[in-house]
Amino acid sequence: MEMKTGFKLETMLVSDNHLPTLLGECLPEQRVYEGLEGVLAGRTAICDIDGDVGALQFRGIDIRELAEHSNYEEVVYLLWTNELPTSNQLWAFKAALAAEREVDAGIYEILRFLSHYMKPMDALRTAVSALASDNPGEDNTSPESRLAKAIYLTAKFPTLVAYYCRESQGKMWVRPDPKLDHAANFLYMMHGRRPTPVEARAMDLTMLVMVEHGFNASTFAARVTASTLSDMGAAITSAMGTLKGPLHGGANQGALEMLFEIGTLDRVEPYIDAALSAKQRILGFGHRIYRKAGDSRVPFIKNMLYQLCAQSGDFHLYELADAVAQTVWEKKRLFANVDFYLAPMLHMLGISVDLLTPFFAMCRIAGWTAHVMEQYANNRLIRPGSLYVGPVGRPYIPLDQREGAIVPNF
Fold this sequence. Notes:
Helix content: 40-55%
Order of helices and strands: HEEEHHHHHHHHHHHHHHHH
Structural class: mainly alpha
CATH architecture of the largest domain: Orthogonal Bundle
CATH topology of the largest domain: Citrate Synthase, domain 1
Shape: globular
CATH superfamily of the largest domain: Citrate Synthase, domain 1
CATH class of the largest domain: Mainly Alpha
Number of helices: 17
């Protein structure tokens, strides 16, 4: 590592090759679960995942029932309150979200500047951090105040994403339409036209199935931040920084870029063979939880991709994705995960590749806030231990007695 002064850091505390050896010397009772795999890090009543059968439940209701019969706002209400709303409650909740969609001029100016200098996820993470500073009732820790903050952030996030997109493309921004549902309004702000019924349903269904998924990396990051009793905006900013990584939210972008690179059906098998021979990870396949059975969200996203292709009359992307999924299954026995079909479906909805991860955050923010509120309600600081594997009992050597010391090149 070289700093701006020219100083070069040429030493390592433990080499990459030596560290696995040290870890292997741990006593059985000191076993470390790398990546916290298999560790129960907390209790939650929000989401239950059974990877053995590919099942997912929100507050005890199967995702398949919600995907078939519900909508995004209704599921958000369920996540935040533990109950499905009545028709009057749902109407009032939709109105509350719609009333908070507008963003102050100062936030727009920040995002206008950032859109020309930062990648989307970086710009939006910074904008959310700024937005959180304007969050109402910052010092109020009551459940009512926390719910108001969740509404505030969830309602405004699509506005930020749509504004960034249009500003970066040199287009005039489109103000939110309070008459449209949450998902349809996002497409309207993105494209400047009202979506077709198929497009609106595809967007709503996508946001619904992606809204929550247990103690994933970004959600856990949000809960860690909330456990310090930091504010909700800080917790969401932590989640966004975590989501950005290619092993989490960035996987959908990688999956779409792979489909573009393959291009045609005749190149599917050679591409997959080459990737497997090179031991490259094929993004959009496999999942730490869904190993024995496929993800129950995938069929709904795949079906909506088909419907969007049918609307356009062009099935190339659907056929290409399906061929890749079949080939990977035949050669590696890996299920396509939700990211794989989500990426081409969002492409059909006009969401550019670089906005796929911000879109993921836009869907997931309601789940993040649900977990933050749950963490606040029964809080204990999240502070895991660690197993030290470095040297012990090393003597301190005075500076003038150190042989072969590195001389900084300032």
